[in-house]
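Deliverable D2.4 — example input (structure tokens):
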């Protein structure tokens, strides 16, 4: 599982002109599920997102009372090493990925964060006000 974490001043997701998820200050977590990922990967990513010390005073999301916007993004699994057309073969099938993206949101909420989400499989307009900018790449298959 890959996750791009951005510290944000605010963020929101719009689908067909309707806001489906929005947060104030906190993090936006763009989550890509790889073939073979499991609930343990989701829990690992959620714990890391919640405890990254990327806020002022070296505090984490939970310490600052920040919010989290979780957005599915299978394109994080794109492989563009050959040619000009990325391969998506490493990405999990939608029926496998959707519950794991939801699991990241559930795990974050269980840790105490207020969580909003995008709409899995929809064409989303994701507006992110990256604060800093701070952007961190996480991969559950690589040591943090």
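Example output (designed residues):
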């Amino acid at each position: 599982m890959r996750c791009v974490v951005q510290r944000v001043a605010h963020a929101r997701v719009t689908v067909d002109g309707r806001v489906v998820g929005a947060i104030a200050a906190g993090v936006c977590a763009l989550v890509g599920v790889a073939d073979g990922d499991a609930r343990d990967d989701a829990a690992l990513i959620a714990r890391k997102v919640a405890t990254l010390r990327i806020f002022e005073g070296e505090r984490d999301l939970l310490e600052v009372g920040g919010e989290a916007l979780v957005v599915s993004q299978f394109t994080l699994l794109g492989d563009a090493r050959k040619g000009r057309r990325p391969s998506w073969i490493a990405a999990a099938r939608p029926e496998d990925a959707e519950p794991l993206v939801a699991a990241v949101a559930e795990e974050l909420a269980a840790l105490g964060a207020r969580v909003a989400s995008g709409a899995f499989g929809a064409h989303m307009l994701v507006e992110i006000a990256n604060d800093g900018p701070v952007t961190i790449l996480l991969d559950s298959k690589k040591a943090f």
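Residues 94-111 form the longest helix (18 residues).
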